[in-house]
Specification:
It comes from Brasilonema sennae CENA114. Belongs to the short-chain dehydrogenases/reductases (SDR) family. This is Oxidoreductase. The chain has one domain: Rossmann fold. Strand 2, helix 2 and strand 3 form a beta-alpha-beta unit. A 7-stranded parallel sheet has the order 3-2-1-4-5-6-7, sandwiched between helices. It is about 45% helix and about 15% strand. It is globular and about 50 Å long. The chain has 8 helices and 7 strands; from the N terminus they run βαβαβαβαβαβαααβ. Helix 1 crosses helix 8, helix 3 runs parallel beside helix 4 and helix 4 packs parallel to helix 5. It is α/β, with parallel strands linked by helices and about 270 residues long. The protein binds nicotinamide-adenine-dinucleotide. Nicotinamide-adenine-dinucleotide binds next to helix 1, helix 4 and helix 6.
Length: about 270
Amino acid sequence: MTAKATYQFAGKTILITGGAGDIGKATAHRFAANGAGVVLLDLNEAKMADVAEELKEYNVPVATFSCDVTAADDVAKAFSGAVQQLGQIHYVFNNAGYQGVFAKTDEYPEDDFQKVININVVGVFHVLKAAAQHLRDAGGGAIVNTASYAGVVSPPNMLAYGASKFAVIGMTQTAAKDLAPYGIRVNSLSPALIGPGFMWTRQTELQAAVGSQYFDANPKVVEQQMIDSVPMRRLGSLEEVANGVAFLMSEEASYITGFNLEITGGQ
Ligand SMILES: NC(=O)c1ccc[n+]([C@@H]2O[C@H](COP(=O)([O-])OP(=O)(O)OC[C@H]3O[C@@H](n4cnc5c(N)ncnc54)[C@H](O)[C@@H]3O)[C@@H](O)[C@H]2O)c1
């Protein structure tokens, strides 16, 4: 994968959580292609090492940290390690997330509800707080939190995920107000139906398996049902999501904060 360069981020550094996943990796390529140093944080060390290896083609500084965003100590250690290795961080892409199981509300499992909230809300809070402290002390910067279109219009069978992403959009709005005096912009991103990728495959298979009135029992038919709900009649690409992150972090967005950018093909 080689990303095109448009916005210029030379001399800047971006920290990306969920950096081993599909959207994190595409965004790492986008920023590295535009000259930024990249710090990856993820639970999945093997996949993160693969992404770091791929980024060598751009000749920018890259660091990786094994980090569970649900543990505040892990997040603090990763931030201080990142600063030691790469110096000041300018952008934080708060992106690690978990989709949860797919189940009707009357059957949604308690333990998974807690897990989704822990990763997508408490984890996002830990990273947001650490980013706010670092960027405040550094004199400013930009944060993008990955929400989802499920945080705008919640889909069936995704009770915890929808709730968690509504929370991400809410935290973005408060943080944007709190951090504006420090020169820190905070925005969120709400993709929907992005693929190919792990979450796309997983959601079509699991929506089919639930056996609800909303989707067919065949995942291939579910794919088509979902694409038919998109005015542009296609999936969005990982690169199109990364483009949204680049815009929100860039100087071109210098008066934009507290905004939720929907990347949905018109849904
Ligand atoms: N792909 C989509 O269609 C889509 C649509 C809307 C929103 N999103 C959101 O985008 C973000 C990235 O999703 P993706 O599609 O790249 O999925 P992905 O599963 O490929 O990547 C998610 C990454 O987060 C990491 N992660 C999970 N829990 C973690 C934890 N506790 N600490 C650290 N890392 C952890 C995983 O190891 C994984 O590498 C998520 O927040 C997701 O909810 C994705």
